[in-house]
Specification:
Number of strands: 0
Largest sheet: none
Distance between the termini: 42 Å
Radius of gyration: 19 Å
Shape: globular
Structural class: mainly alpha
Strand content: under 5%
Length: 226
């Protein structure tokens, strides 16, 4: 729990912002709280709110949220060797509380301390996740509550693109990331005339394909050189 506290510097402001932006999008406090409890994934929550604001069909909202969270499948796969033997119930709550930060802390801790037993690994994950997931939920509710005090003439539309820029920019670390970003932006602009949300979803798939293709080529070149 102590090791996860620095992440709250980012988690709490984002959660507050989500509550405010979601309220601005016409979702009531109960729905906002339910959103954070059931989904518990900041990037996909912001994506869904943006699409809902654009009146996108429900299936586009759901599929886009799933696409954004596909990285969780990779996180899960890398945790399998460390959490072998966990019961179905244990796997369920680990899956529920699996976020970027809890994964990053857990996998680093497991690699530094490979002799930990299963119980110790699960205990570490639980401590880190509880210290971050509960504040996210609470801050989302607080943001929605405080959002009511913001005058209607103060537009909050700018908050969404700024939030996405803040989340995405630090992730652009490799050529594959840059390619995925560039292709998705260009495709989104070209497909802007499609029904609400559909163009963005296609652009996201094209971006992921471009990034994956470049990454495969880069790995093959490195293998050839070695």
């Amino acid at each position: 729990m102590v090791q996860s506290l620095p992440f709250l510097i980012v988690i709490i402001p984002f959660a507050l912002l989500f509550g405010v932006v979601a309220l601005e999008a016409g979702i009531d406090i109960g729905q906002i709280l339910g959103f954070s409890v059931l989904v518990l994934a900041g990037a996909s929550q912001f994506t869904a709110i943006q699409l809902l604001s654009d009146h996108a069909p429900a299936w586009v909202v759901i599929l886009s949220g799933l696409a954004v969270n596909l990285r969780m499948a990779m996180y899960s796969a890398s945790l399998v060797p460390w959490l072998k033997g966990a019961t179905g119930r244990q796997k369920a709550w680990v899956a529920y509380m699996l976020i970027d930060q809890s994964y990053a802390l857990a996998i680093q801790h497991y690699e530094r301390h490979p002799r930990l037993n299963l119980r110790q690994r699960l205990a570490y994950f639980l401590g880190a996740a509880v210290a971050m997931c509960i504040p996210w939920i609470a801050a989302s509710w607080l943001g929605a509550t405080l959002g009511r005090a913001i005058p209607d003439d103060i537009a909050l539309d700018f908050a969404m693109p700024i939030t996405f820029l803040a989340m995405i920019a630090p992730m652009l670390r490799t050529q594959a990331h840059m390619a995925a970003c560039f292709v998705s932006i260009v495709a989104a602009l070209i497909l802007a005339g499609l029904p609400s949300g559909l163009g963005m979803m296609i652009a996201a798939l094209l971006g992921m394909a471009a990034g994956a293709l470049l990454e495969v080529r880069t790995e093959r070149r490195q293998e050839a050189k070695s």
